[in-house]
Every structure is written in C-alpha cells, then in structure tokens.
Amino acid sequence: MTQTAPIIAMSGLVKRFGTLTVLHGIDFNIERGEFFSLLGPSGCGKTTLLRILAGIEQPSEGALLIDGQSMSGVPANKRPTNMVFQSYAIFPHLNVEENIGYGLKNIAISRAEAAERVAEAISLVKLEGLGKRNAHQLSGGQRQRVALARALVCRPKVLLLDEPLSALDKKLREEMQLELRALQRTVGITFVFVTHDQEEALTLSDRIAVMDRGHVLQIDTPRGLYERPANRTVAEFIGSMNLFSGRVTRIDPDGTVEIEGAEGTFRGTARSGFKAGDAAVAAVRPERIRINAAAPEAGANGVSARLQASSYLGDRSLHVLTSTASGQQITVQSGPSAEDMPAAGAGGLWLHWPTDAGLILPD
Amino acid sequence: MVGYQGAEGLTSAVTTASIERPAERPAGPRSDPAVIRKRLAGFGLLAPALVLMFMMLALPVVALVLMSFWTQSGFELDRSISLENYRQLVAPSDETTWWYGIPFPLAYPVPAILMLKSLAMSLVATIAVIAVSYPMAYFMAFRVTRHKALWIILITIPFWTSYLLRVFSWKIVLGFNGAINSGLKAMGLIEEPLEFLLYNPTAVVITLAHAWVAFAILPIYVSLEKIDRNLLEAASDLGDSRLKRFFRITLPLSAPGTIAASLLVFIPTVGDYVTPALVGGPGGTMIGSLVQDLFLKQNNAPLGAAVSIVMMLIIAVLVLLFLWAIGYGKLRARRS
C-alpha cells in the first residue's frame, strides 16, 4: 500500500431500509489526511454513509476499502475508524478520564501508557483538571471535547464526525470550528465530517461532497463548489444564487453558452455539454451583480428590475429587486457606502454582470 | 399477617426511592401565598394515600411494636412493658442446636434458624428470578421492535389468576403423581415417582421464583429501555465486542432497575408464609410460617410480634448494607 493511495475508497455503495433506498450507488475516494465533509439537507443519506464507514450499518451493495483493506464483514469494533456522535454518547456512569480511556482497554498497551495517552488527549482538547468530573457535570462544549478526545485517543486512521457542532450555540460553534481545523492539522488524521450547515463545511473542509436524496451531486473544494457548482441544486445549496431559466440558443467554441428566457438573453460559462434547445438556467451570485441606471451594451448580461428593499449590514448592503419582465425576485449584494445604494423605489434600474460571472447550468 | 404487610411497605418505599428523583423545590419565599396554595394542593392530593398508609401501615406497625413488649402466659395477656420476648429470642443455652453445621447455642433456636433459612431461601429465589427475568427484559428492550405493549400484557398474564391457584398449579406440576413425575415415568426414565420435588425448600423456591418473575421484569425492562442506543454503538466503535459491551455498558446502566427488582423480590419473599404452607411441607417452613403459628395456633401474639419486628429490622439492615456495599448512592448520582 503506498502512502498516496486513498484512505477510503467507496464503489457502488447502496443502502436500503426495507423498500426505501437511502443511498443510490456512492462512488468516491477520500484522500489521506484530508478534512472531508459530507454536506446535504437532512435525510440526504450523509449520516447513513458515515455509519457505513464506521461499520454500524452494513451496505446493501457495493464495496468499501479503508486503507486498502476490504471492510466487508468487518464489524465496527475491528475497524480503524472512530466516531464522534451527534449526541456525543458520553457514558453516563464513567467520569471524563474513564470515558476518554474507554477504547484503550481494547488495545494492547500498558496501563501507564494508557494513562499517558489519556492525559495527552485531555490536554489536546483543553479539558485539564476536569478528568474526575462526571458526565452530567459537563457543559455541551465540554461533552463535545470529551467525545472528540475519546475517539482521537485510539489513534484511528479515520475520524468520523456526525454533526458534532450542531448542538452548540453559534459563538461556541464558531470557536470549535477553528479548533477542530487546527486539531486536524495537528494530529494529521483524515477527518470525515457530516454537516447540513454549508458555511461550516466551507470553513472547515479541504473537500466537500454535496449529497441530496441518496446521490452525490458534486465533490469539490469549497472554492470549486461556490464558483463552479455542477448543477442547480448545488448552486442553490451553497451560498445564495440568482437563477434565470431559459433555453440554450447558442454555444460558442470557447465554452460560452447563451440562453434565452423571460428575463432576457444571458451568456455565461458552462461546465456540462449542452445542445441548442436544452432547458438551462443562468446563475449569478448576488455579489457579482452591479446595479446601474443604464441598459448594458448589446450582447452583455442585463436584467431590467425594480428595487423593493435594501438593507444595510455594516460591511455590505443587500438589495432585493424584482425583474420587470416576470416579477422574479433577485438578490444583489453591494458595498456598504451610500453611492452603492440606489435610491429606494427607483424604477427602471438595470442589473449588469460580466459573462465570466454567469454560469449556465442544466435545469 | 401484620409482619408480612410491614415488609411489603418497606419494599414500596425502597422502589419508589429508586425510580423517582428528588423533586425540585418551587422557587419563591415560603410565605408566598401561591407557593402555600401549591403545597396545600399537593398535600390534598397526597391525603388519601397518607390516610390509608397511616391506618394500614403506620398504626399496625406501632401496635405490633407495642404488642412485642407485652407477654403472654397461657390465656393471660400481661400488658406491662417488658423485654421478655426479645430475651427469649436471644437467651443462650448450654445445649447447642446444630443446623447444617451452623451452631445455635440458644434456648429457643427455632426463630433464629428459620430466619437464616428464610433469608437463604429468598436469596436463592431472588437470584433465580433475576437470572430468568433479566434475559426476558433484555429481549423485550432490544429485540422486540413492534407490539411492545402486547409483550408487556403477555407478561402480566400470570396475574390474571389468583396467587393461590398459581401455587396449587405448582403442586400439580411437582406432585407425587404430578406432571413431571408422570411424564418421566411415561418416558421410562424413572420407575418410582421422584419425591424430592414437592414439600421441601426447593419447591418453595421454584414457586416463589415463578410468582415474582413478572414483578422483576418490568423494572429491569425500563432501565434497559432507557439506555441510549448511541452509547452501545459508541462502545462498539471504541472496540468492544458484544459481550464486553454488555458488561461495560449495558449491565452497569441497567443496575438501578436490576437492584430495584431484586429488592422487590427479596424483601417480601423473606416473610412469605402462604407458599411454604402449601408446597413447603415440614422442611420448607419459613419465618413467616412461625409468625403465623405464634399468632394463630400457639396463642402467643406478643412473641409473634417480637419475631416480626426482629425480622423487619434484620431485613432493613441487610438491604441498607447491600445498597451501601454496591455504592448505590453513587450509582444514582451518576445517572443523568
């Protein structure tokens, strides 16, 4: 096994619960040392996939390799993975030290070494002095740290995290995100992180798999997902996106595609192959749109719109407009200064964006 | 029988304590009229139970204590306070009575021997009950996924017939010409009926265990059912095999229910007298049988009262020692 081979390789993983299929053929690899996120709305199958990696659930079909070893028939207690549960699953009858040292009882190491590793893990997650506390004397954040230390102390090849931050309040969550990222860099273990929070996934991950209804829609870096979403669902799920539907009218050799719809004609770059007449959407991020009084020059992207409301957010302003042609709502983000903010109620405004800011996605 | 009732009262006190948590005090000063109204309403709701407990439990126990200080000589009841009955129970003698190799150097050794015998029989019955009911409760909590209510109803089916009928049915099963003996004879395994089945301590233990299994299943089931399944998954994830996980997670977390169940069985069975009377024969008598005998046949109610009081105290001390030994307070404090 070379060090460059993927730590996790999945091929054709299918999971059915009775007649319900929750995973439809999952094929992808997770690289060694990556911070990898499974992102999707609740019920998309991301937790089921994580539980299959952990060995708590068995796939109905397909193969799973961890570090080159087939995991078929390997129970959870024999896998080189450890999991941080959403509920943390802290053992209520054990104190912090006993919880963290739980898995070490199953590894052939001396008592002294186990104690040393527990102490090391306690300091790693900053729980010094709380070793003798009982589970019910801990706050949510502390329980989360115990769960993390308990999994890390076993030195797994892959650490699986099931929405570990969702039970924490916003401020603590943001703090823990930074710590988690730093921790992953320190220990160098591959993290597989399940979340429904796209901001959290963008902040933490090296790569993200966006899942929906049992399918993987796209796997990319945070930047790739944001700037080059593969389809409409990903575009809408990651950040906010304005979408104008239409039909393909022209395809240029350089990859620029033109579509025509109710709001006008739009040009943008396309990732997938189109042919004339295909249903497609033009997608543009709110921050890439400029508000203008004049119509754009011929051939450039532009929508005639009316301003409905503006809100000042300190570092930026958000404007909600409706298209003159169809009444569709459009969101635009501009700088915070007054010059960026057109007079409220002004009619006949034009929204411009360059061709390279527009994306043409299959509808 | 009064002694029997006393023991049962103790049971309910112990089990309630194990299931309920101390209620939080309502906020606000004691003089707050709203708080006072709330307290009064609370006492109002408690009143029927309190009155009943006072009349049926506290008063009889007080009467029993008082009576144990009287003395009976023939048909004369001496109401002057004396420790004569208690002295009689512990009065030493030069002549030692031996019971299963244990010396009893007492002038009147019967109560002491029966006490020890009752405790031993109840202990065996309790162990048998837990051994049978724990797997059943485990099955209901972890394996039954649908129609749980139906299973619980099925477990209560034995209660649909009277206790006496259930004891009599054991006579039919274990008797000289009973189901077991006829069956074994029909199969040609034995020539003569086995006589050790009925009218001895074993028969009493079997009958008691059968009668109390249903009571033990429910508390154990509740404590198993409450265990978060994520804890079991976490234990497996951390490398535990199924067996190891059972001893490290399932068993400790179900301990409170199991302890409640064992006390629920042990305490009342020590004082039982119906079962020994029906299936125990001469060898299967227990301390409850003696109390009944003293009250009804030997016409020595004061001595019977003294035996009852001593029995209650011994059981109470044993239960407290048991709870202290297993660190029950710590166990409860850790549950969250």
TrEMBL record, chain A:
Pfam families: ABC_tran (PF00005), TOBE_2 (PF08402). SMART domains: AAA. It catalyses: ATP + H2O + polyamine-[polyamine-binding protein]Side 1 = ADP + phosphate + polyamineSide 2 + [polyamine-binding protein]Side 1. Keywords: ATP-binding, Cell membrane, Membrane, Nucleotide-binding, Translocase, Transport. The keyword Iron-sulfur does not apply. The complex is composed of two ATP-binding proteins (PotA), two transmembrane proteins (PotB and PotC) and a solute-binding protein (PotD). One of its GO terms (molecular function) is ATP binding. It comes from the Bacteria. PANTHER family: SPERMIDINE/PUTRESCINE IMPORT ATP-BINDING PROTEIN POTA, SPERMIDINE_PUTRESCINE IMPORT ATP-BINDING PROTEIN POTA. This is Spermidine/putrescine import ATP-binding protein PotA. Its EC number is 7.6.2.11. Residues 8-238 form the ABC transporter domain. Transmembrane segments: none annotated. Belongs to the ABC transporter superfamily. Spermidine/putrescine importer (TC 3.A.1.11.1) family. Part of the ABC transporter complex PotABCD involved in spermidine/putrescine import. Responsible for energy coupling to the transport system. The keyword Protein transport does not apply.
